[in-house]
Write a structure and sequence with these properties.
The structure is a homodimer.
Chain A: E1 5-6, H1 16-22, H2 32-49, E2 55-59, H3 62-71, E3 79-84, H4 87-98, E4 102-107, H5 116-125, E5 129-135, E6 137-138, E7 143-144, H6 147-154, E8 161-165, H7 177-181, E9 184-188, E10 199-204, H8 206-214, H9 224-231, H10 242-258, H11 260-280, E11 284-285, E12 295-299, H12 306-317, E13 319-320, E14 322-323, E15 332-336, H13 343-359, H14 368-377
Parallel strand pairs in A: 1-13, 3-4, 3-5, 5-8, 8-9
Antiparallel strand pairs in A: 2-10, 6-7, 9-10, 11-12, 12-15, 14-15
EC number (chains A, B): 2.6.1.45
GO molecular function (chains A, B): alanine-glyoxylate transaminase activity; L-serine-glyoxylate transaminase activity; L-serine-pyruvate transaminase activity
Protein name (chains A, B): Serine--glyoxylate transaminase
């Protein structure tokens, strides 16, 4: 028997009852039956976004929604500010450049969080900046950027919108899009939403919708104005990913039952426990300033082959951690706290990690990580 | 008890064993396990496309692949020829215009098929045309366009590519992309492929890949060159729709077992039987020239409310037919033959149709449709 444990920051495990819901007979998408489900899930997404605005559902991965946020609001020659502090920060730049949008960037070492002051400085020296693009949680570095504080800076500027990639923050952290002043918030299905990948969600503020009116970049499949019109009629511009929307309906029912406060707290506790465990075992965390509650990145010793470790844990022990991406390949191990993941999953993760690194030759004390994790978790079970 | 029968041309029913395959625990997409499945399905898609070229899998609906075929090959100011003979023909025009691509069109009444001669005439009078865009099967009109014959015309022109929307033809008809000379062929998951919507497939000829090199339209999520590079390394540029790819793997296993010849024949027989049934009941078909084997469109009498009929069949009897789209709303009923649909499903469709129209007040002979269908089907069971 080789039980499998999916502990990577997306895709995350899907609850059995959600999988079975998606396994029900297919229904047609142009029916009152589907429209009812669709309108219901769009409504239930709003508290997770902290918005009264329309939340749109797209058939595509999170990158599609990131692209949508640029092509619907910016024109060739416009300038945006990007926080480039990881793989997904870099993606904003790549998308913008594909569409002739100019990029001013704040380059940070992987592991650092941006500060609101750094953003403000750039906005003062480059008043032409039309959009500030940031990850709330940068999955590649397991870092959180202070989006609430940044929003306070950006919302004072009439001609600048604040765009947040919430792919691993919505459903992990309380997010108050309207109150804080986030203008565009995007997320995907395969993280805190406990679904397979294939859906993306996006919401725009009134201010952002005004940018849509003047944006000259071409778009068709990702045309948000057309989608809004269709979705506010309880349908979609193009064929939706029906089974995933039905899964979403079940997921949102589960999330409502658990309660958002409890969900955010669960992520906090699992993250805290994992971080304390790593430190108790003598490791350093990649996140220097504000570690993300979506996943914990652990720096491996210089002579340790992190890639081989992740591979062997997966193939020999059924434990899927994530390694590092791009230049961090082999140098870190990332452990997820996302979605369908409870306190005992964190114990599994920590225990598997400490046994794994011990077997791989590191001199650590077996049980020290688990003990540290238990000290955090015990107050919450 | 209200058993449900999904008889609309997409989404189509998903086989139980495929739904259960997709309900298995989620796996990570950056693993040898997923790569093996992914490379295997890409290989197995080739015979369905009739190609040795790379078939790419996108997370999105068929429209995303249609858009990809334009933005990756055409530049603003280029001119294309579109056969506008239905809702999806019109979509080529809308996409092209969104990207500044000029459109010459052949406008046909809904129900008509284009001829290769009409295409040739346009290409002679407009030698600047860089692409010919057509539906093989136009789902809105249940018409087939003679793509093999059109390919023979287009392939003689070095500076023109032939782009085929095969969304309801791949898996329905034998398609020989390479031999016939189709340069781009696109399809989706929720038709003959018996899957939920959310995946699109696209293949390009060597000639089309050359167009990609010079095309100046912007693209990121739908950048096919980047996708090809990733997919030929058994991965994807962005997160794939994992559960649907796993479903595809099961579907392709089932299709291989049934045999492509048998699949194409099954669609032919179900379509023939439905058409003969409609005629025996005194109805006319919408398709004037070449009816499609994907679905049959039946013209309803002038004073008959087709929309009400489709609604009542669905809500009162559990039978989902499709009505007409756009200006054909209420005027036709469309019955699907696509995908997980066998001879007895056709009997159900015909019987439900004849009982339904009788109850709705039409003077037809009960059983006449089924008898006509049986006369076709009996030689194949």
């Amino acid at each position: 028997m080789l039980k499998k444990y999916l502990l990577s920051p997306g895709p995350t495990p899907v609850p059995e009852e959600v999988m079975l819901e998606m396994a029900k007979p297919m229904i047609h998408h142009r029916t009152p039956q589907f429209s009812k489900i669709f309108s219901n899930v769009r409504e239930k997404l709003k508290p997770l976004f902290g918005t009264k605005e329309d939340v749109l559902i797209l058939a595509g991965s999170g990158t599609a929604a990131m692209e949508a946020s640029i092509v619907n609001t910016m024109s060739p020659g416009d300038k945006i500010l990007v926080v480039n502090a990881g793989k997904f920060g870099k993606r904003w730049i790549d998308i913008a450049q594909s569409y002739g949008v100019l990029v001013e960037s704040i380059e940070l070492a992987w592991g650092r969080s941006v500060t609101a002051a750094q953003i403000e400085e750039k906005l003062i020296s480059h008043p032409e900046i039309k959009g500030v693009f940031v990850q709330a949680s940068e999955t590649s570095t397991t870092v959180y950027h202070p989006v609430k504080e940044i929003a306070e800076i950006v919302k004072l500027r009439e001609n600048t919108i604040f765009v947040v990639d919430g792919i691993t923050s919505v459903g992990v952290y309380e997010t108050k899009m309207d109150e804080w002043g986030i203008d565009i918030l995007v997320t995907g299905s395969q993280k805190a939403f406990m679904l397979p990948p294939g859906l993306a969600f996006i919401a725009l503020s009134e201010k952002a919708w005004k940018f849509v009116e003047t944006s000259k970049n071409p778009r068709f499949y990702l045309d948000l104005k057309k989608e809004r019109k269709a979705q506010n009629n309880d349908t979609t511009a193009y064929t939706p990913a029906v089974s995933l929307v039905i899964g979403l309906s079940k997921v949102l029912e589960l999330m409502e039952k658990e309660g958002l406060k409890s969900i955010y707290n669960r992520h906090q506790v699992c993250a805290d426990a994992t971080r304390e465990a790593a430190k108790a075992l003598g490791f350093r965390l990649l996140a220097q300033d504000i570690p993300s509650n979506a996943a914990t990145g652990i720096i491996m010793p210089e002579d340790f082959d992190g890639q081989k470790f992740v591979k062997s844990m997966r193939d020999d022990s059924g434990i899927t951690f994530a390694g590092g991406q791009d230049h961090m390949k082999g140098k870190i191990v990332r452990i997820s706290h996302l979605g369908y993941h409870d306190f005992m999953d964190t114990i599994i993760a920590v225990s598997a990690f400490e046994m794994g690194v011990k077997k791989a030759g590191l001199d650590i004390e077996l049980g020290a990580g688990v003990a540290a994790a238990e000290k955090i978790i015990i107050d919450h079970i």
